[in-house]
Amino acid sequence: MLVSQIDMITPSSLSECLNQLSKAGRKHKLIAGGTDAAVRMKEGKWRPEIWINIKNLKELRYIEEREDFIHIGPLTTHTDMIQSQLLQRKADVLVEAAREVGATQMQNMGTIGGNIGTASPAGDTLPALYVLGAMLELTSLTNKRTLPIEEFFTGPGRTVLKENEMITKILIKPQKPNGLGIFQKLGPRKAQSISIVNVAISLTMDNDRKCAEGKIAFGSVAPTIIRARKCESMLTLGQLNEELIQNIAKIAWKEVMPISDGRATATYRRDMASALLERGLYRLIRRWENQ
Amino acid sequence: MKSIQFIVNGKERTVVCPPAKTLLDVLREDLGLTASKECCGKGECGSCSVLINKEVVCSCLVLAGQAQNQVITTCEGVGLSPNLDVIQESFIAEGATQCGYCTPGIIVSAKAFLDEVDTIPSAEEIKTALGGNLCRCTGYTKIIKAVQTAASKKISEPETAR
Ligand SMILES: Cc1cc2nc3c(=O)[nH]c(=O)nc-3n(C[C@H](O)[C@H](O)[C@H](O)COP(=O)(O)OP(=O)(O)OC[C@H]3O[C@@H](n4cnc5c(N)ncnc54)[C@H](O)[C@@H]3O)c2cc1C
Ligand code: FES
Ligand code: FES
């Protein structure tokens, strides 16, 4: 299929979009901001017969707090998240992650739905969504299901999304007043770079430098994002002092399962995962104490 | 082929082209607006930067069909001699361009950035705002200076007075 032969449909509502997705016997694919889709189309990797263009489906672009969750529409851009006061207050780790995506142009174009849809193990918003306990709503013309983000990814670029489904909502749990988070990324340069390793940490703090509960998720160190459960269980062992933080970082070195590729060797990734976690925890404690 | 309508630099335009053609190619080939440049073609260098509804994007990754009904501004729309924008004047005054290949994209990015600020930005803020624009010649020092000069001119002589 040549690029010049690819058609495009622009549905004007979600129901029209779901209708289009339900049509069998043709190769179609959603395109939102296009920052992954257009690149892969040019590389010859993604050549659908029809692009279903959802870029301007306004009804899927929102950030709202309702009942116990923050609801995020999949067409919310990284810029929208960076500027959202609600997320700044109640999901700081996601704001920090969005800020690390590409540079201004990519943040203006790229969407959270697209970041999830691409399912790269290096996707920057993904570890943040893991530690915020994200749930994804997947909708087809005839069905709607909601599942935890952990169950969505099956490998690099692979998900449980069916041909006729799309992501219609991302639900996250707002941080409590004694909660805070951080996102740390190592890339080859400051802007516009794919993560070599990234980590999202979210802590709920108690008195006296003690952590009541914490979540840690790493990207780029396994086929999908992983939670570092052993490290997490150590967070509540006692005061988060230098000794405990260093011990947690040592366990992280063992807990991640990276491969070597063109961007870095496995050993370097282990070293950096450990260092990013250690640095992130120090920074979080400092922020907590300065609050 | 699809017929696509949009507003480019204040004018309503219609082009007939494959919907998956990039906006950059449409601007350059169908509309003869050649300020926006293709360099990497994959979002990394910013030389193709244009504004869509006042936000800076890489036109090499926007497909023509997605630009339907959008308001697009290229470097030509920011200003053309003799009616240059204060940003363009500052680039000339500070000598912030060498080969010039990156310049239209940087002007467009700087325009979006300066439209949102009302103080003189720090070098660090400019580096973040222009992080998606690469320049292989200048070493950036003069570009940053030019953006600061433009900001200070904008503040001291607001648009209406100019
Ligand atoms: C130069 C450059 C730098 C980048 N830097 C980073 C970076 O630092 N960190 C990072 O994480 N990413 C980065 N990216 C990747 C990309 O920008 C992000 O993944 C972005 O969030 C993708 O969003 P999009 O809207 O552009 O997706 P698109 O390209 O439009 O779509 C991506 C995929 O998601 C699917 N999709 C989109 N919306 C939905 C939906 N609602 N339901 C189901 N499937 C959907 C599409 O079908 C497609 O398969 C970079 C890309 C470029 C070109
Ligand atoms: S040509 Fe578009 S970003 Fe390089
Ligand atoms: S002036 Fe030559 S690339 Fe910037």
Description of the structure:
The complex is a heterodimer of chains A (291) and B (162). Chain A has helices at 14-21, 37-43, 78-83, 85-90, 92-99, 104-109, 112-118, 125-131, 229-234, 242-255, 266-290; strands at 7-9, 28-31, 50-53, 63-66, 69-72, 135-139, 144-148, 153-155, 158-159, 166-172, 179-186, 197-205, 211-219, 226-227. By secondary structure, chain A is α+β, with helices and mostly antiparallel strands. Chain A has 3 domains: 3-53, Uridine Diphospho-n-acetylenolpyruvylglucosamine Reductase, domain 2; 59-172, Uridine Diphospho-n-acetylenolpyruvylglucosamine Reductase, domain 3 (2-Layer Sandwich), CATH 3.30.465; 179-290, Enolase-like, domain 1 (2-Layer Sandwich). In chain A, the strands form 4 sheets. Chain A has a 5-stranded antiparallel sheet with strand order 4-5-10-6-7, with no helix packed on it. In chain A, helix 2 links the parallel strand 2 and strand 3 (50-53). Chain B folds into 2 domains: 2-76, Beta-grasp domain (Ubiquitin-like (UB roll)), CATH 3.10.20; 86-156, DNA polymerase, domain 1. In chain B, helix 3 (86-94) packs across helix 6. At the A-B interface, helix 2 and helix 6 of A face strand 4 and helix 4 of B. The structure holds flavin-adenine dinucleotide and FE2/S2 (inorganic) cluster (2 copies). The site of one FE2/S2 (inorganic) cluster has 12 residues of chain B, from loops. Chain A: Pfam families: CO_deh_flav_C, FAD_binding_5. Chain A: GO terms for molecular function: FAD binding; oxidoreductase activity. Chain A: InterPro entries: CO_DH_flav_C, CO_DH_flav_C_dom_sf, Diverse_Substr_Oxidored, FAD-bd_PCMH, FAD-bd_PCMH-like_sf, FAD-bd_PCMH_sub1, FAD-bd_PCMH_sub2, Mopterin_DH_FAD-bd.
Explain the layout of strands and helices.
The complex is a heterodimer of chains A (291) and B (162).
Chain A: E1 7-9, H1 14-21, E2 28-31, H2 37-43, E3 50-53, E4 63-66, E5 69-72, H3 78-83, H4 85-90, H5 92-99, H6 104-109, H7 112-118, H8 125-131, E6 135-139, E7 144-148, E8 153-155, E9 158-159, E10 166-172, E11 179-186, E12 197-205, E13 211-219, E14 226-227, H9 229-234, H10 242-255, H11 266-290
Helix pairs in contact in A: 5-8, 10-11
Chain B: E1 2-8, E2 11-17, H1 23-30, E3 49-52, E4 55-58, E5 71-73, H2 75-78, H3 86-94, H4 103-115, H5 123-129, H6 141-156
Parallel strand pairs in B: 1-5
Antiparallel strand pairs in B: 1-2, 3-4, 3-5
Helix pairs in contact in B: 3-6
The structure holds flavin-adenine dinucleotide and FE2/S2 (inorganic) cluster (2 copies).
